[in-house]
Each structure stands twice: as C-alpha cells, then as structure tokens.
Amino acid sequence: MEQKFVRVGIFWAIPDEEEGGWKFEAYQKSYPFSAAKQLANEAGLIEYPFSHFDAWEGKDVPFDFYPRGRIAYDVECGVHRIFADECLDLDDLDELFDFYDIEDATIHPDKSYVSMFAKRKRGVPVPKLEYRILRGRDKIGENLIEITSGETRVLVELGKALDGGEETSDMEKQVLSTKYDAVIVSHYHADHAGLIGQKRDCPVFVGAGARRILDMMSAYDGKTLGDNIKTYRDGQPMWVGNIKITPYLCDHSAYDSYMLLFEAGGRSLLYTGDFRFHGRKNGEKLLERLPKHVNTLITEGTNVGSDKPCFSERELEMRAVELMKSTDKPIFILQSASNIDRIVSFYRAAKRTGRIFYEDVYTSHIAAAAGGSIPRPDFFKGVYAFTPRRVTGRRREMLFEIENKRGIAGISKGDQYVMLVRPSMTAYLKKLAQRADISGGILIYSMWSGYREQPSVKQFLDAARELGLTERTLHTSGHASAQDIEKLKLHVHADETVIVHTSAEQK
Ligand SMILES: [Zn+2]
Ligand SMILES: [Zn+2]
User: Fold this and answer.
1) What is the pLDDT of residue 57?
2) Which of 151, 375, 385, 447 stands the most exposed, by the fewest C-beta atoms within 10 Å?
3) How remote is the CA of residue 162 from the centroid of ligand 1, in Å?
4) Is the torsion defined by CA of 33, 95, 126, 234 positive or negative?
5) Range in 160-169, 349-358, 436-445 the model is least confident about
6) What digits encode the pLDDT tens for the residues 13-64?
7) How remote is the C-alpha of 359 from its chain's centroid?
8) How far does residue 142's CA lie from ligand 1's centre (Å)?
9) Ligand nearest to the CA of 143
C-alpha cells in the first residue's frame, strides 16, 4: 500500500567510538499526506515543530559539538530533504532512513551552522573556557559573571543590586541588552535572580523548585515569568553551545540552590553560588560529588573575615524550643518568607512545644510551591494561614485557595502560637495587641543583622518593644563559614580561586 505519512525530524550524529560510523539521537513527527499542503511553510517545506535547542534541553547531548541536522518534506517536489552539518553525507545517514521510514532523500549542507566536531576535523583550534566577573567582587551579592568559550556566551546570575531600589544600573542595562546563548541562575534570591523577568531574549535556566517559587512570587505581584525560563536538574549535565554545565544541589537559605560546574575545551570552572555546609543537607555528600580538581574556583565569601555564628539549623531548632518553653505568651518570628529551612526549624520547634503555627498567605504559598515536607496549611496539622491586611485581585484568590486559615478574632482566642511576621506587618501587630494581651511574648529576630538598619525593620522592632514583646536574636548564617570555604578549596584543588559575594578585602 502507498505510504500515507510524511515524516520530519531533527537529529544529532554522535561518532560511535567502538564500532566506527555514527550513532543517532533522533526525534520524529509524522503527518498524514492528506494534510501536507496546509502544513507547509513559506518555503514549501513541512518542518519538525521543535528546534534542536528544545529537544536538547535537560539532555546530555552537546548542543553545538556533535554534527546535527534536520529532515523536512518538500511538498512541491514530493521529496524529503535533509539539511545537515558539512561533515555528513548521505552514506553516513543510512540508519536514519530506517528510523524515519523513508526511502529516498536529498541532502543539503546546512550553511548557517557548522558543528565544533566538524571544525575540529578541519583543524580549527578548540576554544578555551574563559570568564569575566562583571560585578560581585567587592560586594555581598549581585554577582554577574560572563563565561565564554569561542562563540558561546553564557551569563551566570541575573541579580539586582540590593541597594538600587527600582533603578536599573548601567551594568544591569548592559547585561539585559547583551545577546547571550543562555543565562544560568543558581537560586532565587533577588541578588541572583532579581532581573529574571526582564531578560526574555534567551533561555534562562534555574532549578525546578526555584522556578516554582519564582512563578509564585511573580503571580503574587500580578506578573508572569517569560516562557524562556527553563529548568536544569541536579547532577544532570546540559550543554549551551560548546559549554557543558552540571548543577549540584547545595544547602543555602534559599530553597533549591545550586553550585554550577562549567567545562569546555578541556578546562573547568566551579562556581559555588551561595552555599553553606551547616544546614540540613549533608555537606560531605556534596563534596564527594564535586570534582577533585578544577582550573578555576569562584566561591562566595560572605563570611570570609567574619566570626558570625554558623551553628546548624538543628541547633537553632533546639534553641527555639527553649525560647518557646520560656513563656505562655505568643511568639513572633521575624524572618524571610523564602527562607524555607528556617520555616522548617521554627515549625518543628512549635510542634515540639504544642504551639499552633501561623504563616501569612504569601509565606503559605511559597511553602506550597516548595512542596514536599515543607510545613504549610491544609497539609500540616496545626498550621494556619492568616492575612495581615485586606487583599484584592489575585492576592484575594490566593487567600481563598487556602482552606485552613484564621482571622484575627480566631487567632486572639489563644496565646499558644508561633506567628511568622515581616516588617510590613506593624499595623497588624498593633491590632492583635488591641484584641488580646500579647505583652510578655517574644519576638525572635531571625535574619541577617544588617537588615536592622532598614527603616521598616527599625519601625517594626520599635513597635514590638512598645507592645511589651521581648526581642531575642536567633539566627544562623545562610552562607558558608570561612572554615567551610577552606574545606571546599582543599577538596576541589583549584589552580586559581576567586572570591565573590564578599565585603572582605582582597589582594
Ligand atoms: Zn547572594
Ligand atoms: Zn542567596
């Protein structure tokens, strides 16, 4: 019977080192002949609907290294056409004829693209891996790093200056308008991901959990992230041009944070993003997974030159239990809504002391976006949402998506609770104090001490004191101690180490 289908697709040809010849990574789609005319593009071709870039996402196929090609169908001439890398000819592609179930095709060199493989065969030198630190050498946060290899150009991080307000600095304008092959972001903190919604001209990669949280944060602000936001996976190498990138999940005060290993042209660079070894994740296990030698280590150095306390989250939980036992009055926690590990620590302490746990709607949704074992209303007993003010629009919808919530009247009926608060909740705290006597309660300050200088934080702390709350500090850094940075350095044996994300003096 006559063939009823047109088959189109894309492929990579990967040299078969054992048997010789080629192995193929190929994708196909078939269309009935009857629909062929309507499907043709302006050139009269039916093409595979996805690009190599789409198919490659998340897979260990060197996007630009191996020769690639595509099979289209020419409706006018009734023939399959293969557009392929200059180093491939029809004899090389025998196996593909079976895969696509086609009998004949014409081959055309793809003029717009020559693989690294073909260039190397021609004797073109393989480009090296190079980096340029655009910002972050003398500041805590706001890293912007360019990593290049030949024509491939990657931007690492897309942070916003923390003291820049709504202003976009010249450096930020520059990276937003520069053409990159991809942007790779280590975690969702604003000093690493704050500009993510503004870069739409290339793929931007983050971890899947970080993406869910960034989505939630934009939804809360009535915005949407672009569909160029893609995800990478822990331990799964991916390729951007000829740069191989491997993410390694690490512990930090942001959920789903990664270290990133870049490799090209026989050289390697490990960028730590923000990390610590004293969190709930096992630092030793991460060290075992990392390479034992890299050419360049770019490490964060927030705590270099400081003696900040770096005790564990477990230790913090124990100290929180003691504080919660010390009074029968309410406990308020001033912490970042996106510090998921800290929510877990205080929730566990609340549970152990028989206290109800209140999260505001925003925090509840962040916890829900993180998912899994993260305490949140509707999934955890004794956890309720509250809203510190009347909300409208999307925020109101988000409030009603939660079933287990309590209003101020319900909350005021009891004293045995732990409530997560933020500096914007001064008025709410005062309202609570009008309904029930909260004096004698404790306000736990659980953030970086530098935030005390911010006017909104100052105002909140003053109000809490006036309402009779005792302030206690209980915080441990989200960043590695100076000793743990040394430990990492010893492990990865870098030829060269660069410290970013630091206020320490550097040579
Ligand atoms: Zn940071
Ligand atoms: Zn961070």
Assistant:
1) 64
2) 151
3) 10
4) positive
5) 160-169
6) 998 888 888 999 999 999 988 888 788 898 899 999 988 877 776 566 666 7
7) 24
8) 7
9) 1
Residues 339 and 466 in one domain: yes
d(CA 275, ligand 1 centre) in Å: 9
Neighbours of ion ligand 2 (CB under 5 A): 189, 254, 274
Q: What's the whole-number mean pLDDT along residues 131-144?
A: 86
Residues 252 and 378 in one domain: no
Q: Tell me 71's DSSP state.
A: E
Structural domain harbouring 100: 5-121
Digit-coded pLDDT (tens) for 496-506: 999 999 877 65
- 506 domain-assigned: no
- C-alpha 190/C-alpha 169 separation (Å) is 15
- Asked whether residue 507 is domain-assigned, the answer is no
**What is the reported pLDDT for 182?**
96
Within 10 angstroms of residue 35's Cβ, the number of other Cβ atoms is: 10
Q: Which ranges of 259-385 would DSSP assign to H, the alpha helix?
A: 283-289, 313-325, 340-352, 361-370
DSSP H helix total and E strand total for the chain: 16, 24
The confidence score (pLDDT) of residue 345 equals 98
Tokens representing residue 84 in the block: 């392929």
Distances (CA, A) of 477 to 188, 298, 312, 326: 17, 20, 9, 24
pLDDT at residue 52, rounded to an integer:
84
What's the CA-to-centroid distance between 61 and ligand 2, angstroms? 30
Asked if the model's pLDDT at residue 507 lies above 60, the reply is no
Quick one: which ligand is closest to 302's CA?
Answer: 1
Q: Is 407 exposed, middle or buried (0-12, 13-18, 19+ CB in 10 A)?
A: exposed
Tens-digit pLDDT profile for residues 282-325 = 999 999 999 999 999 999 999 998 877 799 999 999 999 999 99
* Average pLDDT of the residues of the chain: 92
Q: Kindly give the pairing relationship between strand 470-473 and strand 22-32.
A: unpaired
Nearest alpha carbon to residue 304 among 151, 466, 488, 429: 488
Going from the Cα of 312 to the center of ligand 2, the distance in angstroms, rounded, reads 17
Domain assignment present for residue 372? The answer is: yes
Nearest to 155 by CA among 138, 140, 168, 171: 171
pLDDT in the model for residue 494: 96
How far, in Å, from the CA of 253 to the mean position of ligand 2? 6
What are 81's strand-pairing partners? 72, 106
Q: Output the domain CATH number for residue 436.
A: 3.40.50.10710
Determine the residue type at 386: F
pLDDT at 1: 41
Q: For residue 409, report the phi and psi dihedrals to the nearest 5 degrees.
A: -65, -45
| Ligand 2: centre distance to CA 189 (Å) | 5
